[in-house]
Amino acid sequence: MTPLAALLLRRIAATGPISLADYMADCLLHPEHGYYTTRDPFGAGGDFITAPEISQMFGELLGLCLAQSWLDQGAPAAVTLAELGPGRGTLMADVLRATARVPGFHAAARVCLVEASPTLRGVQRATLGTHPVQWFDRAEDLPEAPLYLLANEFFDALPIRQFTRQGDAWAETLVGARDGSLCFGRSVPAPIAALAHRMADTAEGDIVELCPAASAIMQAIHVRVSAYGGLALIVDYGSWRSRGDTFQALKSHKFTDPLAKPGEADLTAHVDFEVLAQDAPAYAYTSQGALLTGLGVHARAAQLAQRLSGEALVRHEAATHRLTAAQEMGNLFKALAVLPAGCPLPAGFS
Ligand code: SAH
Prior knowledge:
This protein is α/β, with parallel strands linked by helices and 350 residues long. It has a single domain, classed as Rossmann fold. The protein is built from 14 helices and 16 strands. It has helices at 3-15, 20-29, 35-38, 51-54, 56-72, 90-99, 105-108, 118-128, 212-228, 273-277, 288-294, 297-305, 310-324, 326-332, and strands at 18-19, 79-84, 109-114, 133-136, 147-152, 161-166, 169-178, 181-186, 207-210, 230-239, 248-251, 254-256, 266-268, 271-272, 282-287, 333-339. α12 (297-305) packs antiparallel against α13 (310-324) and α13 (310-324) crosses α14. The longest helix has 17 residues, at 56-72. The chain is globular and about 60 Å long. The site of S-adenosyl-L-homocysteine has 21 residues, from α2 and α4.
């Protein structure tokens, strides 16, 4: 049994079953035993691999998309260049390298990273070297300024609540205990105000998920982009309207029982982009494959390929395919742009 499992079982024995959101929050970010607080989980030797770790092109293209939008919006003098959940810092490093040649952009941009894990803050510091960077605990604390923001595989790590429809009410998925082990259970059905709009498109027994933390973070983004300008690019796996049980655990690149080893497996849920876009001043939505293709990934891939041969060339071609192909990440991953009202669509979204 993991130390966190023992701790959760004691808590459940004392105060009763907990929501999936409380379970996820502790599994991922418990100060001593949390998955992200205790390790660097990325890469071939870790539990999962993300787009910036697959290819430098991902960060280069998204960075240039942000810089183009900054130019389109009149190149404001003091802006925030932010990333939510930067992992190893690879994406921001690629963004900074690619945008170094955009005149004035680095001088205007203050790099702000929102990261909850002290371990990963250390990795980010090492990756970004001497570039001045400031860390924040929460997106809500980002400066009041034009906001150019990236978030890749961040929202899928935020705690969700999950509900099953029963009549006109919803039973919430809970984590309880049976025979000394964690187990799933359900609350007594009750009406849920935040799910009133899902009565029309769901039937008895359907499962829907809510991510309260995501809505609060998006509010902070919408307010800044609307008041000061900017562009937020959010990439994650998910769809426009959540349906079904998407709560999952990954360990060593394989799906595993999410209750088996709390604190030692990555827990995620699909992102509901409809909720992220709610109240945005303006937005655009497409697939990761379409966005990268629109931003010129194939031309950039061909350019990089000229310098490669043998094994490295094979890896590079496989990486391009993995990021863009419909049956790989191209369709499963979606991209949302939040932009000021009346602003032209960002590159790659038309
Ligand atoms: N964007 C990176 C890493 C994705 S993993 C990449 O694409 O490789 C999720 C990241 O979000 C990790 O850095 C994790 O520590 C961070 N994170 C998770 N929940 C968070 C929260 N509530 N607040 C701030 N950071 C969080």
